[in-house]
Write a structure and sequence with these properties.
The complex is a heterodimer of chains A (67) and B (260). With 67 residues, chain A is mostly beta strands. Chain A contains 1 helix and 5 strands; from the N terminus they run ββαβββ. Chain A is globular. The relative contact order of chain A is 0.31. Classes of the chains: A mainly beta (67), B alpha/beta (260). The interface between A and B is large, with 31 and 45 residues.
Chain lengths: 67, 260
């Protein structure tokens, strides 16, 4: 299945929902968040949120930053 | 001497340190951690960015104890209301808390905020339950509006972000302090310890800085200097400085002078 993740086209092999996707991509950041097609998805709903061909996924985390 | 320490209160939390520090521009995560520890800050800002999928998996948050620090996610780099609001929503879902530093940039060169967009984004975020700390210009009317819509604090800039120019308009900061009841936090522009001390002497509740520490020749020493400067300035404010006068006022008694 082809998805656009963080602006890049990627082929996803197994995942069918956001929780699976985070596992498949090996996201290890202690705090990360996901948006699907420009909608922020509550963390508790990752497993219940299905992903489909051509979906746009954003995965973000905290980085060093200040003012 | 009154030794009672007054704490900084923001978003329902109490902070013994009035210094808020950023986590950008350091040479390493280790240096970031050490500088923050030395600064004594209890609130630290972080940015929210896309994860680089195939790169190093380390994160700044692996180096900062969440029990020790309150994270203040910012919307740095956002140029629209929509992006700023979404960034805050993502930060909250990422578990970074609901106290957010809202900045909607209006000009690339000066990094001055788009005040109109900042007000709009802040309004939406307050309605959504966030404790909003907006980065804004040192404008009294704007700060009053930000307070009216429910912002937890106002954060006027002292000078452009990363410029190190210091407190360019102390009179506006004083006017803002008189105009609002929410905490006033100086955000951006501090260059060295005397700037921090001066800002605190004006009576602001706190200072947020990043570059002044991270880009100093010795960031760890500067972190210590800033800690002391903020404490010093606050103490002088609480002690109450003498009024400025044009003419001299002798401190030695005039009686009992020798007469030759």
């Amino acid at each position: 299945m082809k998805l656009t993740i963080n602006g890049e086209d990627r082929e996803i092999l197994q995942s069918r929902n956001l929780a699976d996707l985070a596992r498949e991509l090996d996201i290890q950041a202690p705090n990360f968040a996901m948006a699907l097609n420009k909608q922020v998805i509550p963390r508790a709903n990752y497993a219940a949120t299905q992903i489909r061909e051509n979906d746009q996924v954003e995965i973000v985390h905290a980085v060093g930053g200040g003012v | 001497m009154n030794t009672k320490k007054e704490f900084m209160k923001i978003g329902g939390k109490t902070f013994a340190s009035r210094l808020i520090v950023g986590t950008g521009k350091y040479k390493s995560f280790d240096e970031t951690r050490q500088a923050i520890e030395i600064s004594g800050a209890e609130m630290v800002t972080v940015a929210v960015r896309r994860i680089e999928l195939d790169k190093n998996k380390d994160s700044i948050l692996n180096h900062l104890d969440p029990k020790r620090y309150t994270f203040l996610p910012n919307t740095a780099g956002c140029y629209s209301v929509k992006d700023a609001v979404m960034t805050c929503e993502l930060a909250r879902e990422a578990g970074l808390g609901d106290i957010v530093k809202v900045e909607v940039i209006g000009d690339e060169k000066t990094l001055f905020p788009d005040n109109e967009a900042t007000l709009e984004a802040s309004k939406l975020l307050v309605k959504d339950g966030f404790h909003v700390l907006p980065y804004c210009t040192d404008d009294v009317v704007l700060c009053k509006k930000l307070e009216d819509i429910g912002c937890a604090a106002v954060m006027p800039l002292a000078a452009p972000i990363g410029s190190g120019l210091g407190i360019r308009n102390p009179y506006n900061i004083k006017l803002i302090l008189q105009a609002v009841t929410v905490p006033v936090i100086i955000d951006a522009g501090v260059g060295t310890a005397s700037d921090a001390s001066y800002a605190m002497e004006l009576g602001v509740a706190g200072i947020l800085m990043n570059t002044a520490i991270a880009a100093a020749k010795d960031p760890l020493k500067m972190a210590h200097a800033m800690k002391l400067a903020v404490e010093c300035g606050r103490m002088a404010y609480e002690a109450g400085r003498i009024p400025k006068k044009l003419y001299a006022s002798a401190s030695s008694p005039l009686d009992g002078l020798i007469e030759m």
